[in-house]
Amino acid sequence: MPSISRWLILSLLGLLTLSACLALPPEQDAEAAIEAPAPEPRPVAQALLGSGELATTSCLAKPLLSALGKSRVLVGGKMSDAIASQAPFDVRYMYLAGGLFDSAEACGSCLSCSAQAHSCSNASGGCAWWGCWQWDQQAPGQYLRDFLQAAAARRQIPMITYYELLHASGAVDGTAEVLRVVDISLMRRYFNDWRFVLKQIGSSTALLHLEPDFWAYAQFLALDPRLLPAAVASANPTDCGHLPNTVAGMGRCLISMARKYAPNAKVGLHASAWATKIDAHLNTNPLFDVTIEARKVADFLSLCGAAEGDFVVVEASDRDAQWYEVTTGTRRWWDPSNFNYPSFRQAFTWSKALSERLGKPHLWWQLPVGNMSLTGTWEQWRDNRLDYFFDHPDQVAAAHGFGMVFGAGMEGQTNPSSDGGNFVRRSKAYFSSGGQLACPTGLTEAR
Q: Nearest CA to 235 among 178, 170, 186?
């Protein structure tokens, strides 16, 4: 056996040592990751528009905004009528959630309707189905029709967050709701309800946001949604008889139905930063590549039909950062200086990678409303995201964000009626300044 030079051995050992030093750390929970300062960043918007694999000269938001008659980053929220009238908001959103009717088809009358075995009549106190959240003498769906009319009267785009599966399935929040979509009876009522929603919208312009959290929990169970069973063609042969009975087919069915029954609506799935079981928004390890995680989420959603939609929805947090700190002892703050992790720059890097992988712009949804002047109590929690987003809309645009809408994700969180007027003031100032062009210098219209 020929002898081997000791210098060659040392060289090989050196290469092995170097590769070990450069290797990315193993996947770990973001809460447990080691905090370390980031290198001094370039301006975030400049970095997002810069060179490298994430760079693009296409403005993914332009086609969608043009179809909506807009050219600037949209601003809006989940708010009362009183707040909605105080500024020229672009978007107003609401949830449709709570549960489904008990019958196979959508009810024709709230007087004779029931949901979860409870009468929907006013005399009985109402029921969980959104279609009867109204005077029971009116035809079901008036609750949604009123919302659409109010938005149109203020020239605001109505946004519907359709969040029905969790409550309709009766499952606990998590992967259990994904396992319930094999139930043909449940999914028949689910698709019939979605069709009823779309028929209320009709030819109106609207943004449709499909099932927050669900797709992430599905990704927990399998990396390929085509491997997850769901009653699709078997539950809705009318609209989706050509689609597979899988979670992938389910997403494509929901989008296909929107095209059929609400042709002027724009539709998108929800992308969760924690779908890969590592929360990319809370990562504290500067060596961790959030772009890889974003592409994993994008690839999963693409199989569910996201690339056939118009946009994708992302979120920062469902609750104010101070609420988490006080009630759970966890830190959910993003560093506004972008020197330490978690940071705003990291969040925008993740969202940009997601959009570029899908070829679709994203909408920041349910952004916390808290601000740093609040008292730190019920509906008065502090957070820094609203002010950061209004201070840096160029960063939103540079990452292919076409809008930012604010609202509380849970009772007791800061909301536009309890924040001391900060949301309205910042919104007014944004609109008075002319707003942020969705296609900043360096980006051209996507084709």
A: 186
Strand 91-97 with 74-77, pairing = parallel
Tokens read off for 80 = 């009362």
| CB contact set of 83 (below 8 Å; sequence gap of 6+) | 77, 416, 417, 423, 424
The residues, ordered by sequence, that sit 6+ positions from 107 with a Cβ below 8 Å of its Cβ are 101, 113, 120, 129, 131, 132, 140
For residue range 347-367, list pLDDT tens digits in order: 999 999 999 999 999 999 999
Query: In angstroms, what is the C-alpha Rg of the chain?
Result: 23
pLDDT digits over 254-272, tens only?
Answer: 999 999 999 999 999 999 9
Q: In terms of Cα–Cα distance, which of 292, 259, 265 is closest to 278?
A: 292
Lookup: tokens for 442:
């360096």
Helix (H, G, I), strand (E, B) or coil at 432: helix
Please report, for the chain, the start and end positions of each structural domain, with discontinuous segments joined by +: 29-93+139-445
CA–CA separation, 86 vs 173, rounded Å?
A: 36
Q: Output the six-digit token pair for 42.
A: 């370039």
Alpha-carbon gap, residue 95 to 281, rounded angstroms: 24
How many H-runs (helices) and E-runs (strands) does the chain carry?
17, 12
* 78-105 per-position pLDDT tens digit: 999 999 999 999 999 999 999 999 999 9
Distance (Å, whole) CA 114 – CA 164: 16
Query: CA triplet 43, 48, 53: central angle to 5 degrees?
Result: 135
What is the CATH T-level fold of the domain 29-93+139-445, as seen in this structure? Answer: TIM Barrel (3.20.20)
158 by DSSP, 3-state: which? strand
Cα distance between residue 70 and residue 263, in whole Å? 18
Q: What is the pTM of this model?
A: 0.88
How far is the C-alpha of 447 from the C-alpha of 438, rounded, in Å?
16
Beta-carbon contacts of residue 184 (< 8 Å; ≥ 6 apart): 231, 234, 235
Backbone φ and ψ for 58, nearest 5 degrees, come out as -95, 140
